[in-house]
Design goal:
The complex is a heterotrimer of chains A (about 375), B (about 170) and C (about 375). With about 375 residues, chain A is α/β, with parallel strands linked by helices. Chain A has helices spanning about 25-40, 45, 55-60, 85-100, 120-125, 140-155, 160-175, 185-190, 220-225, 255-265, 270-275, 285-295, 305-310, 325-330, 335-350, and strands at about 5-15, 50-55, 80, 105-110, 195, 200, 210-220, 230-240, 275-280, 360-370, 375-380. Chain A has a domain at about 5-120 and about 210-225: Peroxisomal Thiolase, Chain A, domain 1 (3-Layer(aba) Sandwich). Chain A is built from 15 helices and eleven strands. Chain B has helices spanning about 15-20, 40-50, and strands at about 55-60, 65, 80-85, 90-95, 95-100, 105-120, 125-130, 145-150, 160-165. Classes of the chains: A alpha/beta (about 375), B mainly beta (about 170), C alpha/beta (about 375). At the B-C interface, helix 2, strand 4, strand 5, strand 6 and strand 7 of B face strand 1, helix 1, helix 5 and strand 5 of C.
Chain lengths: ~375, ~170, ~375
């Protein structure tokens, strides 16, 4: 029988377009201090392992993990980084609990996107260096190409994609920690500049600064620590291929396979019925729709209709991105997925304020690492 | 297995192979620029350097005084906000005499990087350079003092101290 | 519930080279293919992939793990990269261990790659940005400073001379003559080391490992699967890791506490009470000769300051009482950062199986240890293997 584990504390700092008052260390400290208070733990005494999520070039520091331990209370303790999405980090922490070697672990992810002054050049630096990068194209073109293929193969319309922006930035308006909440209408989105055809400017999420920390504990310890543990029921992650030449341009295979693994672990056969809501990557508006289909939350070509009908609104049959998603909260670089998982925890604990959904017991969070990757990670959480 | 394996994969290239153009190479110089927010603790530290002073911070639990300052004690998980002015003198905890540049080429003059434990701090200090010292005289445990830039040239940087010299 | 047992069942590596013709992806593929072939497995038999690779600045690719995924055999698989600077290699095996020990997977491929030669004009350039961006980089620090500072502190506290330390370089480079992948194997003397160019006193040219391109892989399996794959599984008995404070100028560098902390964690898990007696062959991280000594002390394999004497007495020679770096280590085989950690684990794997050929240590060792180190002289990662 597999051991069980739950999230017993969360804390965050942000999310804001800029954060000149705090260093990245101080931002991580703020999030960690809140999470430890929430979980009722002392890091040096109680936490047995620390996982931090970071990529060197997002930070502007080589070997960034050097600077991780102090402000999360992990000095001279087991600490390591995962250069991945925040949900990869959450899964790494979860696996450590499942071994039985640990009882309390933490995961941290953050973004100081405002400090990377040439962020689009950083993104271009992720391109395959020998035969793709020399083309010198802005990597958002990959999203434009994929969106084009997605619209073509599913019959999804540009209006339906634009509706995702209206919904998510509107949800963000109800979320005090969202950096980019706004009331925008369909016309504003559709008439915004077409930057990477058919992708429009307002369909690309903007960055934000912030940090997210979660404390995880193994089954019995979790129940001692809190009356409301949020159980990790399933996790899944997958890389398809970094190659632009051979990847699946239609179906987000990485999301499909991540979900298959997570649902398998959670014993979920009919995700639409058995999951109450989802927080899924919407770095680009069409990605929310494509990911919904790949995550088997609806049939292929159906997501656009669902958003148009309002089924994924806060009061819809299956709310998607009640936090405002990446479009509303802001893109948190490596912390984006953990930001999605944070909202799932807050909703399940009934702490989501004005955007609180009624009667939710199970939620899904899914993160994607952005262009040019095909790397995703999913987690199913339940009260 | 190692004993049974006759050849391992991999194709070493020599500088001659590269010079002769036997392999193709693509080049890319990334444009990477950052402007890091210094935050609460380090902003004050830099501001005081501009004033010609070294400031540390004290943990109210373990009573350690540390420099560079930080907002939380990494051992006690106690918020730190008890600022303490330190001396601009200290002890060489360890040093090196460096004859090469970062790309491994020879430097014209050797440099003397050192960890200096600052007087007034609890076995804590920072990385800086020594000067006005002969390679034969530099010792671990020697007392040194900061040589500051003129006030009008200080910018709020660790380089507001030009170097440390023997006391 | 007891912990799930995890075994190493296959190992592979490329040659270590100053410059490889292969791309990083190709190196990762070659090492991985060899590891799979060594245990007659294919990618279809692999459930997950754990990748280790050090700074992106070497290969010159942001999110380098994503770029390498195909070469590492991760297509359509759960794939995760871990990172603890120079400690990444041995840590990647720890990540592979926790993936299998968690019960989520029965097999895991651990792949480490480094292509340092891509970084121009010199791989050391990748290290310029490891220092604190606000309080240190303005001093234009050179990577070698910090090792010289640590080495000097170690020598001064224990009253050591350069020759006490140079013996490590002589031993390891000589051991490497028997390693088919070695980049800088040589038969040198202590005098050669002492007469080599002074880079940053006390660090001289022959005290240092080279920069390298290379990859190394291993295959891990859960107990029930491992026994089907091989009749000679090598078990991961204990793992440990520890990251000390980033405020390295607030620590006394003479002793690596972080290695001790990691070692204690690994020994606890492995049930080792007297490491000096119970561990038969050791591969501590040796990017510099003094680090082998420093790490032997941190690993509690000798008293503080005692390691140089053990070396002088031949205890750490390949045919000594406690063979240390029989592979030739980083000083002899080479140092493609993350890959060198797996090279060390592969060596222990081969030694315990009695398959190390000319490098085989006498006495049929049953327990061995590999350790890596990195960051701002800050991280220790330890894996204890046993049969």
């Amino acid at each position: 029988m597999r051991r069980t584990a739950a999230i017993v504390g969360v804390g965050y700092s942000g999310f804001r377009s800029i954060s000149p008052d705090l260093s990245y260390k101080e931002m991580m400290y703020e999030a960690a201090a809140k999470a430890y208070e929430d979980a009722g733990v002392d890091p040096q005494r109680d936490i047995e392992s620390f996982v931090s999520v970071a990529e060197d070039f997002n930070e502007g520091t080589s070997i960034f993990d050097e600077y991780v331990p102090d402000q999360i209370g992990g000095a001279l303790k087991p600490v390591h980084t995962i250069p991945g999405d925040g949900i990869h980090g959450l899964i790494a922490a979860y696996m450590q609990l499942l071994t039985g070697a640990m009882d309390i672990v933490m995961v941290e992810a953050h973004s100081k996107a405002s400090n990377a002054l040439t962020l689009s050049d950083v993104m271009a630096y992720a391109m395959e260096p020998i035969y793709n990068r020399p083309l010198g194209a802005n990597p958002h073109f990959i999203a434009g190409m994929e969106m084009n293929r997605y619209l073509h193969s599913t019959g999804t319309t540009e209006e339906q994609c634009a509706q995702v922006v209206v919904k998510n930035r509107g949800n963000g308006f109800l979320n005090p920690s969202a950096a980019h909440g706004a009331r925008v209408d369909l016309e504003m989105v559709l008439s915004s500049e077409t930057v990477f055809y058919p992708l429009k400017k307002l369909e690309i999420s903007s960055h934000a600064d912030g940090a997210v920390v979660m404390v995880l504990a193994s089954g019995e310890v979790a129940e001692e620590l809190t009356s409301l543990p949020i159980w990790i029921r399933g996790v899944g992650w997958c890389n398809e291929t970094p190659s632009l030449e051979t990847r699946d341009w239609e179906g987000a295979t990485y999301a499909r396979k991540s979900a298959e693994m997570a649902y398998g672990m959670a014993g979920i056969r009919h995700p639409w019925q058995e999951i109450d809501f989802a927080e899924i990557d919407d770095t680009y508006a069409y990605k929310e729709l494509q990911h919904m289909e790949a995550l088997n939350l609806c049939r292929k070509g159906e997501a656009g209709h669902l958003v148009q009908e309002g089924a994924t609104e806060l009061d819809g049959a299956f709310p998607v991105n009640p936090s405002g998603g990446t479009l509303g909260v802001g893109h948190l670089l490596d912390a984006s997925g953990l930001g999605r998982a944070l909202e799932v925890v807050l909703q399940l604990r009934g702490e989501a304020g004005e955007r609180q959904l009624g009667e939710v017991e199970t939620g899904l969070a899914f993160g994607w690492r952005g262009v040019p990757t095909t790397s995703g990670a999913a987690v199913v959480l339940s009260v | 297995m190692s004993a049974k394996i006759e050849s391992f994969p991999g194709t070493p290239l020599s500088q001659a192979d590269l010079d002769a153009g036997k392999v193709l190479t693509t080049y890319w110089k990334p444009k990477l620029e950052y402007g890091w927010d210094a935050g609460v603790a380090i902003s004050r530290y830099l501001e005081e350097l501009k004033n010609g002073r070294i400031i540390g911070i004290k943990c109210s639990r373990c009573r350690r005084v540390v420099v560079p300052p930080r907002v939380v004690c990494e051992w006690c998980w106690e918020p730190m906000n008890d600022w303490v002015y330190l001396q601009d003198t200290g002890t060489v905890n360890t040093y090196s005499i460096c004859y090469i540049r970062w790309d491994a080429s020879r430097a014209k003059e050797p440099q003397f990087p050192a960890v200096i434990w600052i007087d007034g701090a609890s076995n804590a200090g920072f990385l800086h350079l020594l000067d006005e010292v002969d390679p034969d005289d530099v010792k671990i445990g020697m007392k040194v003092q900061a040589v500051w830039k003129p006030a009008e040239e200080r910018a709020g940087s660790i380089t507001d101290i030009e170097y440390f010299k023997p006391l | 519930m007891g912990m799930r047992k995890v075994a190493v069942v296959g190992a592979g590596m490329t040659k270590f080279m100053r410059r490889a013709q292969e791309t990083g992806r190709e190196l990762a593929y070659q090492a991985t293919k060899m590891a799979l072939d060594s245990c007659e497995m294919t990618l279809d038999d692999i459930d997950s992939v754990a990748l280790g690779t050090a700074p992106d600045a070497f290969d010159g690719v942001h999110m380098k793990g994503e770029y390498l995924s195909d070469g590492a055999g991760a297509w359509n698989k759960p794939y995760m990269r871990c990172y603890v600077g120079g400690g990444t290699g041995v840590f990647a095996a720890i990540q592979g261990w926790y993936q299998v020990a968690s019960g989520l997977f029965d097999t895991c491929l651990v792949v480490c790659e480094e292509k340092m030669s891509s970084c121009k004009p010199h791989p050391q350039g990748a290290f310029l940005t490891i220092f604190d961006h606000t309080t240190e980089r303005a001093l234009k620090p050179n990577l070698i400073w910090i090792f010289a500072l640590e080495m000097n502190r170690y020598m001064t506290v224990h009253g050591l001379e350069k020759k006490d330390i140079a013996r490590v370089a002589v031993k390891n480079k000589r051991n490497a003559l028997d390693h088919p992948c070695a980049q800088v194997a040589a038969d040198i003397t202590v005098e050669d080391v002492l007469n080599s160019e002074v880079l940053a006193w006390p660090v001289q040219r022959l005290d240092v490992s080279p920069t390298s391109d290379g990859a190394a892989s291993m295959v891990l399996a859960a107990e029930h699967v491992a026994k089907r794959i091989t009749d000679k599984p090598v078990w991961i008995k204990g793992v440990g890791w520890s990251l000390d404070t980033a405020y390295w100028t607030n620590r006394d560098l003479y002793y690596p506490k972080y290695v001790e902390s990691a070692a204690r964690m690994a020994y606890d898990m492995a049930g080792i009470k007297e490491p000096r007696k119970e561990i038969h062959v050791v591969e501590p991280y040796d990017p510099f000769d003094y680090k082998e000594l420093h790490h032997l002390e941190g690993l509690l394999l000798c008293e503080k300051g005692e390691a140089p004497r053990l070396t002088a007495d031949g205890v750490t020679a390949r045919d000594g009482d406690m063979p240390v770096c029989p592979s030739g280590g980083l000083l002899g085989v080479g140092n493609p950062i993350a890959a060198s950690g797996i090279m060390k684990l592969n060596e222990i794997f081969w030694q315990l199986r009695g398959e190390a050929g000319k490098r085989q240590v006498p006495g049929q060792p049953r327990t061995g240890l590999a350790q890596s180190w990195g960051d701002l002289m800050q991280v220790g990662c330890v894996v204890v293997l046993g049969i």
